[in-house]
Design a protein that fits this description.
The structure is a single chain. By secondary structure, this protein is an alpha+beta fold. It is 29% helix and 31% strand. It contains 13 helices and 20 strands. Helix 2 links the parallel strand 3 and strand 4. Helix 4 packs antiparallel against helix 5.
């Protein structure tokens, strides 16, 4: 059912112009993209393998057509696209803002003659091992080893890497990433990951000290546009690295920025990305930039809103324009000190109620607040970024004030739980 005024939808003659989205979250950058496409007048078609979204169809008024599809089966996705092509629908773009479907979307867009993004590069970024391997001749990799179920206990080089981080090569959202301070922890987490992913390969990397940053980029005709640099606050909780704070950098020392720009351009060039979005997670360690990981999309959750509030840039909109082969505009409209504070829980249980939303909205500098769970949901301790249950974005006259405004406001949100 079309849920908007049909006169708003862009047509080419009698043909409706369609953008197919592979997957979305209920909120965040991927949902911002759907809402932006609808606002721009495109017919939005969502392919989803999330049955909750099908059952909660009315919560997605920005989606004109929602189609259940197994996104992990490329033939099923092709069949669904072919079905749409028999209707009076002109598929003009196939895109995804969700791991792990960005590469798949770019590949299918190329197949159906509407490609723009470099699908091979996006697919490499999905695989953390391939991404590491193509950077072997650069100074931007940490020291690392690859282990299997057969050799993870016998490799004599492991002890030289400790303390280290062990991760599943196809991980995302911090879910399968563990810090190993000693050899006993290394054995413990390898065994845990091999139980979860039998026969897989694991990457063991030296632990990098230093500040961690996200570098949001959009690449157009091989030109790398650095849209935003965001410093992360990383907490080590419940055996996982969880990012709880994001500080939008409005002014970085020139020498550090020039080194960062060189690193980012080299990393992206090595991946072969000529057109498309990506964000790099980088650590500044001992004055040198090192890559934590590359991801073939804008960061999720509130990143698009952070950039929009801080710079006036709607990055998901500009990414859509690129996918539609239109001219993009990444020039900041203004510069505001902006900080996003995320909320994780110290205990788990069933959500009884949430209090404090009004107090947050009335707090100094607050620009946006998002609370994820509904009453009756089971909330757990954090094991991935998906277990962050709310965030507040605030501005201030300085970085310190923006950070304080966001943190003080976030403390007013209280999750009341039924616990055992």
């Amino acid at each position: 059912t079309i849920l908007v005024n049909p006169s708003r939808i862009i047509r080419r003659g009698y043909i409706i112009v369609v953008i197919i989205f592979l997957g979305t979250q209920k909120a965040g950058s991927s949902r911002d993209a759907l809402q932006t496409a609808e606002e721009l007048g495109y017919f939005t078609c969502l392919f989803t393998n999330n049955q909750k979204q099908i059952f909660d169809r009315v919560a997605y008024p920005d989606v004109h057509l929602m189609q259940y599809c197994d996104l992990d089966d490329i033939e099923a996705v092709r069949e669904t696209i072919n079905y749409l092509r028999h209707s009076a629908l002109n598929i003009s773009a196939i895109i995804s803002y969700v791991d792990p479907y960005c590469g798949l979307a770019a590949k299918l867009a190329k197949e159906y003659g509407v490609g723009c993004f470099t699908c091979e590069a996006l697919e490499i970024m999905h695989d953390k091992l391939r991404s590491r391997e193509i950077l072997n001749d650069t100074p931007y990799n940490p020291a690392y080893l690859v282990v299997t179920q057969k050799n993870y206990r016998t490799d004599q080089n492991i002890r030289n890497l400790l303390p280290a981080v062990v991760k599943y090569h196809d991980s995302n959202g911090s879910k399968d990433v563990y810090y190993c301070e000693n050899i006993e922890a290394y054995y413990k987490y390898c065994e845990r990951l091999f139980r979860e992913y039998p026969g897989s390969k694991l990457i063991v990397e030296e632990y990098l000290e230093g500040h961690q940053f996200i570098v949001e980029t959009l690449v157009v005709d091989r030109k790398v546009h650095i849209v935003g640099l965001i410093e992360q606050e990383v907490d080590f909780v419940n055996e996982h690295f969880i990012i709880t704070g994001y500080n939008l950098i409005t002014n970085m020392h020139r020498s550090y920025y020039e080194k960062l720009k060189t690193a980012v351009e080299t990393i992206i060039s090595k991946h072969g990305l000529e057109n498309g979005p990506c964000h790099l997670e980088m650590r500044l360690t001992k004055g040198k930039w090192k890559l934590v990981e590359a991801n073939p999309r804008i960061s999720g959750a509130g990143m698009n809103k952070l950039l929009k509030i801080g710079f006036g840039i709607n990055l998901v909109a500009e990414t859509l324009k690129l996918a539609m082969k239109q001219e993009i505009d990444l020039e900041p409209r203004f510069y505001k000190n902006t900080f996003a504070q995320y909320i994780i829980l110290e205990e788990e249980g069933i959500l009884r109620k949430i209090t404090g939303r009004k107090e947050v909205l009335d707090s100094p500098g607050v620009e946006y607040v998002y609370i994820k769970p509904k009453k009756g949901s089971y909330l757990q301790l954090p094991t991935s970024l998906g277990n962050r249950y709310a965030y507040v974005i605030a501005t201030g006259r300085s970085e310190a004030e923006a950070r304080a405004n966001a943190k003080n406001a976030a403390e007013k949100i209280v999750f009341h739980l039924f616990t055992e």
